[in-house]
């Protein structure tokens, strides 16, 4: 833990400083609803990453569920009037 | 950047030209984070969601017209809609982010790699962790953290080999976009559910808010 400075002999692609990483992790923390209210001192980067992965996975699952429901709904409501009403209401906003 | 200008006045012009050339490249390195900044906040705007919803509806209608109605009713119909929704989401990103480009260019490869990784995950997780801790990792991050970064890289499409700051940038935008996708699809589902039961109430509510 002694030397935290990024070495100059890196591959030239990325000179990542730990401050930059900490900054980005803080930014990420603000996006995740679970971690938003916790102070950033008490939340480690590992927790933020873990929660980010969990959050993305849960979002994926939600989208999957919604797609399944949408496919069922679209299959069942085959009448053109229902879809026309939706499109009209969306376009007129 | 300040160190460049101080070092050498003659080499300065060359370096500035080189750095300008580097800035013009689309996928900049970690130095050029400022140039590649996308604003994830735009996913929160109502306008963006409206655009996405209408594009999604158009795409879904096209999908239904192309295939017979039996396809959408089957269990695979959900997946078709998921892929359509992801594609439309990627299009809405206007190609400025890596994950959106990855979704658009290789949808099939994404599916296959996701299935493959699920099998590989259980076998290789522990082994690679040990191996990697012995290699000289330049930033001296713990292997546990490294593993989580890798998992995150797998979750965001097309970002498996990205550097850490770029990966976090992509993840930020991806999360915001996913949230918008969920909002839009929820609203759409609500509309479809409501339209089946009370068509007048739903549409008049929306029209009413428009007129007032």
Automatic annotation (TrEMBL), chain A:
Residue stretches making up the BHLH domain: 5-59
Please provide the Gene Ontology terms (biological process) for this protein: regulation of DNA-templated transcription; regulation of growth
| One annotated GO molecular function | protein dimerization activity
Q: Which Pfam families does the record match to this protein?
A: bHLH_ILI
Q: Which PROSITE patterns match?
A: BHLH (PS50888)
Tell me which InterPro entries the record gives: bHLH_dom (IPR011598), HLH_DNA-bd_sf (IPR036638), PRE (IPR044293)
| UniProt main location, coarse | nucleus
The answer to whether UniProt assigns keyword Transmembrane to this entry is no
Q: Which CDD domains match?
A: bHLH_AtPRE_like (cd11442)
Q: Does the keyword section mention Transcription?
A: yes
Subcellular location, record wording: Nucleus
What keyword terms does UniProt attach to this protein? Growth regulation, Nucleus, Transcription, Transcription regulation
- Cellular component GO terms, alphabetically? nucleus
According to UniProt, the name of this protein is: BHLH domain-containing protein
Native organism is Nyssa sinensis
Q: What is the lineage of its organism?
A: Eukaryota, Viridiplantae, Streptophyta, Embryophyta, Tracheophyta
From TrEMBL, chain B:
Main localization of the protein described in the UniProt heading: nucleus
- Select a single GO molecular function from the record's annotations and give it: transcription cis-regulatory region binding
Annotated Pfam families = IBH1_N
Residue ranges constituting the BHLH domain according to the UniProt record = 129-178
Segment Disordered: which positions? 1-42
- Residue ranges under compositional bias (Basic residues)? 18-27
Where does the signal peptide begin and end? none
Sorted alphabetically, the Gene Ontology BP terms of this entry are:
regulation of DNA-templated transcription
A GO CC term attached to the entry: nucleus
Q: Which InterPro entries match?
A: bHLH_AtIBH1-like (IPR044549), bHLH_dom (IPR011598), HLH_DNA-bd_sf (IPR036638), IBH1-like (IPR044660), IBH1_N (IPR059002)
Q: Where is the composition biased (Polar residues)?
A: 1-11
What is the name attached to this protein's record? BHLH domain-containing protein
Record the organism: Nyssa sinensis
């Amino acid at each position: 833990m002694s030397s935290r400075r990024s070495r100059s002999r890196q591959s030239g692609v990325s000179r990542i400083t730990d401050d930059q990483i900490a900054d980005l992790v803080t930014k990420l923390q603000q996006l995740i609803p679970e971690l938003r209210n916790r102070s950033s001192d008490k939340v480690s980067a590992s927790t933020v990453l873990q929660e980010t992965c969990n959050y993305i996975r849960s979002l994926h699952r939600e989208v999957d569920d919604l797609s399944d429901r949408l496919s069922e709904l679209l299959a069942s409501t085959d009448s053109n009037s229902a879809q026309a009403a939706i499109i009209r209401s969306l376009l007129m906003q | 950047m300040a160190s460049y200008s101080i070092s050498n006045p003659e080499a300065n012009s060359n370096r500035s030209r080189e750095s300008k050339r580097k800035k013009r490249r689309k996928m900049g390195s970690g130095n050029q984070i400022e140039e590649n900044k996308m604003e994830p906040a735009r996913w929160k705007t109502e306008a963006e969601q409206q655009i996405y919803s209408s594009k999604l509806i158009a795409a879904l209608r096209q999908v239904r017209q192309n295939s017979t109605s039996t396809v959408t009713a089957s269990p695979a119909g959900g997946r078709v809609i998921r892929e359509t929704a992801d594609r439309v989401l990627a299009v809405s990103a206007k190609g400025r982010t890596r994950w959106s480009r990855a979704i658009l260019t290789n949808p099939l490869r994404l599916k296959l790699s996701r299935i493959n990784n699920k099998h590989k995950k259980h076998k290789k997780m522990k082994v690679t962790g040990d191996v990697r801790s012995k290699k000289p990792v330049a930033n001296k991050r713990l292997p546990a953290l490294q593993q989580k970064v890798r998992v995150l890289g797998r979750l965001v499409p097309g970002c498996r080999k990205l550097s850490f700051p770029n990966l976090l940038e992509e993840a930020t935008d991806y999360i915001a976009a996913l949230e918008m996708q969920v909002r839009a699809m929820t609203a759409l589902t609500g509309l479809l559910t409501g339209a089946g039961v009370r068509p007048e109430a739903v549409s008049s509510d929306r029209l009413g808010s428009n007129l007032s």
